[in-house]
Amino acid sequence: MKNDIKKLSEAELKAFLDAKVSQYNTPEFINSDPIQIPHLFQKKEDIEISGFLTATIAWGNRKSIITNATKLMHLLDTAPYDFIKNHENSDLERLKPFVHRTFNGDDCIQFIKSLKHIYLQHGGLESVFATHTKTANLQTAISKFKNVFFEIEHLQRTQKHVSDPLKNSAAKRINMFLRWMVRPNTTGVDFGIWKQLLPSQLSCPLDVHSGNVARKLGLLKRKQNNAKALAELDQSLRRLDATDPVKYDYALFGLGVFENF
């Protein structure tokens, strides 16, 4: 199949990828993926906060991501929204030992403070993204979100943990978080709890796996996984399905991780 894949017509390629989406966009996917963390919650704010924090540390080994995200939820009393809103400064001390790769306790405390500011002053995470969504995709909104996130006094070092597409980042983790929040909950995997944004505006979480598979399929030519590559992949996926282009993240990721395509 690998040798013949670039000979497929666009219609044949779409059929192949649609089949892979159906194969991987199922509840079974949750068991090995960091999306299982926000699935622990029922309240909208708990889902989006736990999802955002989990996506923030979603790089490296997936088991390690899930272990540390679970640990972080326990540190937040398994009630992230209540903790964000009502914590005292003394409550933040427990977060100091937390670490996931280069994201440490100081970064974690900064994130909690910034999230509190967003919920108290900006109406929450969805509101910030929706307010700054003026284009067909959300990359400018992500950049504006970063500005809002760090408009309070903050540690300079923590800025690296929120990507900026306008500085040529593919912003893989935030695009993944947005997929979780915006894509409809038709198969029980994504949540679809954000109604002010559209699935058609989403961009694929571009990483090593999805990038390599996209290149083998002829969907992407650029060699670096950056904002320019994401824009190219966006165009290719929107040709296949303009209303829900990011469903193909399941196909690209599944082919790369589970099939070593």
Structure in words:
With 261 residues, this protein is mainly alpha-helical. The protein is 49% helix and 2% strand. It has helices at residues 10-24, 44-56, 62-75, 80-86, 105-121, 125-131, 139-149, 172-182, 208-216, 227-240, 248-257; strands at residues 99-100, 103-104. It has a two-stranded antiparallel sheet. Helix 2 (44-56) packs antiparallel against helix 8, helix 6 (125-131) crosses helix 7 (139-149) and helix 9 (208-216) packs across helix 11 (248-257). The longest helix has 17 residues, at 105-121. The termini are close together.
Estimate percent helicity: 40-55%
Overall 3D geometry? Answer: globular
Tell me the distance between the termini. 9 Å
State the helix count: 11
- Strand-and-helix sequence, N→C? HHHHEEHHHHHHH
Query: How confident is the prediction overall: mean pLDDT?
Result: 95
Largest sheet properties = 2 strands, antiparallel
Radius of gyration: 18 Å
Contiguous low-pLDDT stretches (5 residues minimum) are none
Global structural class: mainly alpha
Strand order of the largest sheet: 1-2
Strand fraction equals under 5%
DSSP strand tally? 2
